[in-house]
């Protein structure tokens, strides 16, 4: 499987020398912050814990000092699409976190590229499986955010949506709608996200949600899925790329979504790098 994927990635890499950017993109209006990014990574990893332990916030990852003061409101699971998320709040913000795939290897092996029109902006296309997964929890996520906002009170100034791996893709689809539901600002940090949709989607997304940091660790294989250019798949900006395991050594990439000097400059085939963002072992532990 790795061999076959490697082969198709090479072909795409060779064919794809036209880095059609997205036009008139914007950067986030806040600076990338490594301490913040670490905290939201832990929130992302906690989504892999069992729903029951998340609901009582006694999962092992939940007890991490970075996130133990979280007030959980709702642990959400759709059995049909096998999609898990949770929603709650800290003193000044609501956090929504999506779980990634429990078995990365077979998830990549069985990866389907099929796209579907994106309802809020139908000329854009997004990955069909990701979109169905998001839609299957959308109503529950919305009511959990409503409850969180009412409990969190007037000090609550933002909504933060996070996720690792497939969870990063779901976070992207989630925030693309969430930013339109409320008047307070929404932000997203995601880690090792696959490409979510086509270049039209990336452009639309950047227009509605420029406050996005998409973190990529070294040669993580997942951000290279689906290959750039295949069905016009294109990453959303703004990538933050870590070329080594030194967590102080990163670059904030340009607003094209596909900065050729960032993770696009390597052929990423590492599952290890996918599971070790900031040297923190994924997932629930
Ligand atoms: C968390 O709480 C649940 C329900 O109270 C319990 O079944 C589970 O064993 C607890 N887990 C841990 C890690 O303490
Ligand atoms: C779970 O997802 C399926 C398929 O999208 C949907 O038909 C069903 O209503 C969802 N269940 C809940 C409880 O939302
Ligand atoms: C980072 O990489 C270096 C060399 O590549 C290795 O010696 C070191 O153990 C790694 N650190 C961690 C925390 O994985
Ligand atoms: C991004 O950076 C690359 C390499 O420096 C450059 O070729 C490309 O035009 C840039 N794209 C945008 C939209 O700035």
TrEMBL record:
Keywords: Signal. Residues 1-24 form the signal peptide. Pfam families: Lipase_3. The keyword RNA-binding does not apply. GO terms for biological process: lipid metabolic process. SUPFAM superfamilies: alpha/beta-Hydrolases (SSF53474). The keyword Signal applies. Gene3D superfamilies: alpha/beta hydrolase. It comes from the Eukaryota. Residues 95-228 form the Fungal lipase-type domain. InterPro entries: AB_hydrolase_fold, Fungal_lipase-type, Sec_MonoDiacylglyc_Lipase. PANTHER family: ALPHA/BETA-HYDROLASES SUPERFAMILY PROTEIN, FUNGAL LIPASE-LIKE DOMAIN-CONTAINING PROTEIN. This is Fungal lipase-type domain-containing protein.
């Amino acid at each position: 499987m790795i061999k076959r994927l490697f082969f198709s990635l090479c072909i795409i890499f060779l064919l794809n020398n036209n880095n059609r950017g997205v036009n008139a993109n914007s950067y986030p209006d806040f600076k990338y912050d490594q301490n913040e990014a670490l905290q939201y990574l832990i929130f992302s990893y906690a989504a892999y814990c069992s729903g029951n332990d998340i609901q009582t916030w006694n999962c092992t990852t939940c007890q991490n000092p970075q996130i133990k003061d979280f007030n959980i409101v709702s642990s959400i699971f759709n059995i049909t699409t096998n999609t898990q998320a949770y929603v709650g709040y800290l003193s000044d913000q609501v956090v929504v976190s999506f779980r990634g795939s429990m078995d990365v290897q077979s998830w990549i092996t069985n990866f389907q590229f099929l796209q579907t029109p994106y309802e809020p902006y139908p000329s854009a296309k997004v990955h069909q499986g990701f979109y169905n997964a998001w839609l299957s929890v959308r109503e529950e996520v919305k009511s959990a955010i409503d409850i969180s906002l009412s409990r969190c009170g007037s000090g609550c100034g933002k909504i933060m949506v996070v996720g690792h791996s497939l969870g990063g893709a779901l976070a992207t689809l989630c925030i693309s709608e969430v930013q339109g539901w409320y008047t307070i600002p929404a932000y997203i940090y995601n880690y090792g996200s696959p490409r979510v949709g086509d270049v039209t989607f990336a452009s639309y997304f950047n227009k509605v949600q420029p406050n996005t940091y998409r973190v990529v660790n070294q040669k993580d294989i997942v951000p290279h899925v689906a290959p750039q250019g295949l069905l016009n798949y294109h990453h959303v900006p703004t990538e933050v790329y870590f070329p080594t395991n030194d967590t102080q050594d990163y670059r904030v990439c340009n607003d094209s979504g596909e900065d050729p000097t960032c993770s696009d400059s390597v052929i990423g085939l590492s599952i290890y790098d996918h599971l070790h963002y900031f040297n923190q072992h994924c997932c629930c532990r």
